[in-house]
Every structure is written in structure tokens, then in C-alpha cells.
Amino acid sequence: MLDEKFMQAAIAEANKARNQDEVPIGAVIVYKGEVIASGYNLRETSQTTLSHAELIAIAEANKKIKSWRLEECTLYVTLEPCPMCAGAIVQSRIRRVVFGAADPKAGCAGSLMNLLEDQRFNHQVELTRGVLGEACGQLLTDFFKELRSRKKGNL
């Protein structure tokens, strides 16, 4: 129940991205039962590679708890983390990640590889997959369908 509640908050963040014509990916970080940070994809707006939802939320959480270590935190994100975000998650010592939709093209929490649970690192992340996965996936499907439709109209 709590996972779904917090994933709904991540979906709300993803909708903020969509409203700015960004790929609709959202994330929230929960500490002691409370959302302390959130982020949504801003790569097109900022034109910076690092503007992924997870990285924005991690930076905000670091400021909020005044530490780079997020050991007691759970990250909820609508799409399976990419290699860059998975690396940041491991480095930030986030305890648990919950994601919605799998990403067969770039997912590094089980789809292409699993950086989060790799025993070779000094920190592993507990992983929960597929929470509200259909709703999270539909956000992306609808966004890209609309984008392709707009591009066809401009040809």
C-alpha cells in the first residue's frame, strides 16, 4: 500500500515533466515515511545530461538531510534507472529502490544488467520492481505516441 502511495507521488512528478514536453519520468525520495525530495526529467529544458529525475531528487535529498549518505531512504521512480542513475543510487547509499516500468533499452536494475544488486560493489540496493508498472509505462507510451504524431504532422 505505501509503495503505491509513494509511486503515485512519483507519477505526479512525471506529469510535471510531461507538461513541459519532457519525457515523463518522476522520482521521490522517502525518509522515515515522509517524502523529502522529488524530481522529474528536465533534460530537454536544461540541455544537461545529468537532469534525470533520480539525480535531481538525490541532490535535493542530500541538501535536506545534510549528508551525501541516504542510507535510510527509499527512492521511488516511474522508470527503471539507467546506468548513470543506478551508479548514483549505489554511490548515495540509498537503501531501497522501487520502480514502475521496466526499461528494456537502458534499464540497469534488472533489464540489461543489475548494478543495484551487484555483489562486487560495497553497497547493494534492495529492489522492488513493477509497482504501478502499467500506469508508469502508459505515461511513456502516450508521450511518445503523441510526439511521433506531432512530428508526422510537421513533415
Description:
The protein has 5 helices and 5 strands; from the N terminus they run H-E-E-H-H-E-H-E-E-H. 39% of the residues are buried. Helix 4 (83-92) links the parallel strand 3 and strand 4. The chain is an alpha/beta fold. The mean pLDDT is 96. Helix 1 (2-19) packs parallel to helix 5. A 5-stranded mixed beta sheet has the order 2-1-3-4-5. The active site is at 54 (proton donor).
Layout of helices and strands:
Layout: H1 2-19, E1 26-31, E2 34-40, H2 43-46, H3 53-65, E3 73-79, H4 83-92, E4 96-101, E5 126-129, H5 133-154
Parallel strand pairs: 3-4, 4-5
Antiparallel strand pairs: 1-2, 1-3
Helix pairs in contact: 1-5
Query: Which structural class do the helices and strands define?
Result: alpha/beta
Please give the order of strands in the largest beta sheet.
2-1-3-4-5
On the 0 to 100 scale, the average pLDDT is 96
- Terminus-to-terminus distance: 46 Å
Largest sheet: 5 strands, mixed
Radius of gyration: 15 Å
Share of β-strand residues? 15-25%
Low-pLDDT runs of 5+ residues are none
SS elements, strand count: 5
Q: How would you sum up the global shape? A: globular
| Helix-strand sequence | HEEHHEHEEH
Alpha plus pi helix count = 5
Helix content: 40-55%
GO molecular function: tRNA-specific adenosine-34 deaminase activity
EC number: 3.5.4.33
Keywords: Hydrolase, Metal-binding, tRNA processing, Zinc
Binding site for Zn(2+): 52, 82, 85
